[in-house]
Write a structure and sequence with these properties.
Layout: H1 7-14, E1 19-23, H2 29-44, E2 49-53, H3 61-69, E3 73-75, H4 76-79, E4 88-92, E5 107-113, E6 128-131, H5 137-148, H6 154-167, H7 177-187, H8 192-199, H9 208-217, E7 219-221, E8 224-229, H10 235-246, E9 253-260, E10 263-270, H11 277-284, E11 290-293, E12 297-303, H12 314-325
Parallel strand pairs: 1-2, 1-4, 2-3, 4-5, 5-6, 8-9
Antiparallel strand pairs: 7-8, 9-10, 10-12, 11-12
Helix pairs in contact: 2-5, 2-6, 5-6, 5-7, 6-7, 6-8, 9-10, 11-12
């Protein structure tokens, strides 16, 4: 974690360079809002930038944001032919080598993130690094607006507040003073009608089967709840199911996963002060996949080429890994 940084330094660093703002793969509302907010700031100082990502855009709040506010984001395969090694990349809501961000050809000169730096990326050197363990990356971006005394329109305020609300589960998870200050700053600037549209009707009727499958397949070991969704699910859906399973009285740590073409995708939640979700998923998937995140919420994946390492009884092997990561006897 770093101390608060002066955004004016990053602005000066970026002048005269071609700039890309890269979110983590499969960007969620916080990543999108943060990238759009940073792009807005840079533009105010005469710096044009391109937002890029790898993976798909989930059909839930993420795609709604792009459509409602006309945000342009480019998949890596759409910009790889034009990006050069000397072009600047600012990692937003992630850090280089974090396991959830693709290494593009450009030069990662900055990271703005609210996830902890791990052993995998602690040695990365940036020209600018602002990594603080707050509830949402969008809170850091909002603070930049405040520090610069920079006006924003209602659309930008709405984007940033929605990103913060989604990552903090409506200000009930991982909230820090910075998130509260950001809320106070943004709340009277938002377009309430657009915010309501973003927050409503985020799942379709067909998505109910994901909840049904998770309920049917759940296994509880002490305070751990593990469940498998036996069909492909977007990241946002897996996260929603994880939050739902965590609401069970018997469950204080929830692990939800599904198998997709690119392998297994995991969402982990913890409401225990002595269980760090990011550390648990990293330990459980060590040697076979990657994982990490916050103490209360984290994610992970096992790439398709490693799935065979789970053996013939994949679900049992996955459950055993998480049980052992928590120190339980299997």
């Amino acid at each position: 974690m770093t101390e608060k940084q002066d955004i004016k330094r990053l602005i000066e660093i970026c002048k005269g360079h071609k700039v890309y703002i890269q979110t983590h793969n499969i960007p969620d509302p916080d990543a999108i809002a943060s990238a759009a907010g940073l792009q807005y700031i840079l533009k105010e100082f005469g710096i044009s930038s391109t937002i890029c990502y790898d993976g798909d855009i989930d059909k839930f709040g993420s795609s709604k944001m792009l459509e409602m506010f006309g945000i342009e984001m480019f998949a890596d395969h759409d910009i790889c032919h034009e990006m050069k090694a000397e072009d600047y990349i600012i990692c937003v809501d992630s850090q280089k080598n974090a396991g959830n961000i693709t290494d593009l050809v450009g030069d990662e000169i900055a990271a703005i993130d609210h996830h902890p730096t791990t052993s995998k990326n602690e040695d990365v050197e940036y020209l600018y690094k602002d990594v603080r363990l707050v509830g949402a990356c969008a809170s850091i971006i909002t603070e930049y607006f405040m520090d610069l005394n920079l006006d924003m329109d209602s659309d930008m305020a709405t984007l940033l507040l929605y990103g913060i609300k989604m990552d903090t589960l409506q200000f009930s998870r991982g909230v820090r003073d910075e998130d509260i200050s950001a809320f106070s700053y943004l709340n009277h600037r938002v377009n309430e009608e657009k915010l309501a549209k973003l927050e409503m009707n985020n799942i379709e009727f067909s998505d109910l089967k994901s909840f049904g499958a998770a309920i049917e397949n759940i296994k509880v070991f002490d305070f751990l709840g593990v469940s498998f969704i036996p069909f492909p699910c977007p990241d946002a859906m897996i996260a929603m199911v994880a939050d739902f399973i965590l609401s069970l009285i018997e469950v204080e740590v929830a692990v939800i996963y599904c198998e997709r073409k690119d392998g297994f995708k995991f969402s982990v939640r913890s409401e225990r002060s002595d269980v760090d979700a990011g550390k648990v998923v990293a330990k459980a998937l060590e040697g076979i996949g990657t994982g990490g995140g916050h103490a209360s919420m984290a994610g992970g994946r096992i790439p398709a080429e490693n799935v065979h390492l789970l053996g013939d009884y994949q679900n049992n092997a996955i459950t055993e890994r998480f049980i052992k990561a928590l120190g339980f006897k299997f």
